[in-house]
Amino acid sequence: RSSPDVFESRMEKRTEVKKQPVGYSKQGEFIRCMEEKARPIFFAEGLGTKTSKGGFTKDKTLDSILNVEMVKEKSAEEIKQIWNQYFSAKDTVYAVIPAEKFDLIWKRAQKCPSFLYALPRKEGYEFFVGQWSGTELHFTSLINVQTQGETAPSQLVLYHYPELQKEKGIVLMTAEMDSKFLVVHEAQCLANQAQLFYATDRLETYELVETFNHRSSEFKYMSVIAELEQSGLGRELRPGQVSDKS
């Protein structure tokens, strides 16, 4: 009664408290905030990278994505879980490749740096040329190569990181793609094919890669399609069938 202004102020605060959901408290909010800040920050994507004209990252290092020092105390399986969990929430292609498999891929990539891949479409296939540049694998459609030659822009880049290969026995991989030309499951199909042809134990499969690089006059486009159909990858992207491999 003696101070109406104070009374009104107290009533307003009381109304605010009533509006807050059950279980709400500023203290709880503060604790959650502190817990989030205390969590290990394994990833720092975007730091220390430069974007090229085509929208792809130039000189994309593992340090620019992952806090390498922080994961050195983790086991290979723990790093794999961290990597997969992080990228599963992103619209991209990613993988954790065993060191032995990457050794084989890398050895073959040195001898045969390019290959022709076939991406299943609603009607037929679209061919893509894959070209290794260091540990990066660049893809662009064959029609782009035919019309623009060496200046043809990449439409998908697979980045392989061997920094943990010796110590942890794994190679991390992620990708960037031009979403105007490819969607994730199509990019995944091309990434799966890279392993199919470069990491295979079947000599007839890898022989296609050797023929394309060293005896191009003998290379037959239909051999790639036949290999895809036999492996099952050629059927995955037919209408109504979408690959969910990662």
UniProtKB/TrEMBL annotation:
* The keyword Transcription regulation appears for this protein: no
Annotated GO biological process: mitochondrial proton-transporting ATP synthase complex assembly
Matching entries from InterPro entries are given as: ATP11
What's the domain of life for this entry? Eukaryota
Offer a single GO CC term for the protein: mitochondrion
Protein keywords? Mitochondrion, Transit peptide
| Record carries keyword Transit peptide | yes
Residue ranges the record marks as coiled coil: none
Q: Where is it located?
A: Mitochondrion
Describe the family membership recorded for this protein in Swiss-Prot or TrEMBL: Belongs to the ATP11 family.
Q: Name the chain's protein.
A: ATPF1 factor
Query: What is the originating organism of this protein?
Result: Neopipo cinnamomea
